[in-house]
Write a structure and sequence with these properties.
The chain is of the alpha+beta class. The chain is built from eight helices and five strands. About 5% of the residues have low confidence.
Length: about 280
């Protein structure tokens, strides 16, 4: 391989020296290149003529084909129209029988919950009238919920989103199940939270700012029957109401205390990320 390279290099060096040193060498190379160029131009010209001839024949064939189709349609136009009708009839019938709606979807036949739909549409529910203070001072109420008299039942102190969801729960409980609901306590100050926590775990395990009450995102509720508060779950009617209350509250995206280890049937809250540390 090495010898071949050396030999080719020697031949190339001799050829270049011959061209440089002898005019006859340069003339030979120039004439050879000119002859090669002429032969190349002739071949390219013949190739171009052949392509033009082929394109002309193709164009004449295409015109002849179009003319033949036109003549065929003019002679058998009834047959062509009948075939076109047969091809288009099935999809047209399918389109007409499907009766799609304007937006491309069939109308839903599912029953719509008008109450939830109203809430999602932005309906603003109004809190119920405040109950007389004497309702919260009976012996039964004091036994079930100590210090309830001083609790806040101001709906304006609750988070607006949570308040609207809770009011919708109240409406559903009344209209669907016949239960009148009452707000026992909504917003709770940190001082009151610590006071209740000091009363023991039977009241609450949460200290100040460990409860969603301090953020207006929790509330304790019970039932009204014959103008009196019914809080105890030992009452079968109230216990059934708490179960329904939990289902409705959870359907509205709220957390229900009835599922906790230390069950709090009347408690609901709306947990939001980034609110409680």
């Amino acid at each position: 391989m090495f010898l071949l390279v050396v030999t080719l290099y020697f031949v190339l060096a001799c050829f270049i020296s011959w061209m440089v040193l002898f005019p006859s060498g340069r003339e030979f190379v120039v004439s050879a290149l000119a002859g090669a160029n002429a032969r190349l131009q002739q071949k390219l010209g013949r190739l171009a003529d052949r392509r033009r001839a082929e394109l002309g024949a193709l164009g004449r064939t295409g015109k002849a084909s179009v003319g033949g189709l036109r003549d065929f349609f003019a002679e058998h136009y009834l047959l062509c129209l009948g075939g076109l009708a047969l091809l288009t009839m099935p999809p047209l019938l399918a389109l007409l029988l499907a009766r799609p709606s304007l937006n491309g979807f069939d109308s839903s036949t599912r029953e719509v919950n008008t109450q939830v739909a109203g809430l999602l549409a932005g309906e603003q529910l109004v809190p119920p009238p405040a109950l007389p203070p004497l309702v919260f001072t009976t012996a039964e109420v004091q036994l079930e919920r100590p210090m309830l008299v001083s609790a806040s039942r101001d709906w304006a102190l609750l988070d607006s989103v949570y308040a609207q969801r809770l009011l919708m729960v109240f409406r559903i409980m009344k209209e669907k199940y016949g239960y009148d609901m009452a707000l026992l306590e909504g917003y709770r100050s940190p001082e009151r939270q610590n006071t209740l926590a000091a009363m023991g775990s039977s009241v609450t395990n949460a200290a100040a700012f460990q409860s969603w009450h301090q953020y207006g995102l929790a509330a304790d509720c019970a039932f009204l029957r014959d103008g009196k508060l019914v809080i105890s779950e030992r009452d079968p009617w109230a216990m059934r109401g708490y179960q329904l209350y939990g289902e409705v509250a959870e359907s509205m995206g709220l957390t229900w205390g009835g599922r906790w280890k230390m069950m709090d049937f009347g408690h609901t809250e709306l947990r939001r990320t980034g609110v409680m540390k």
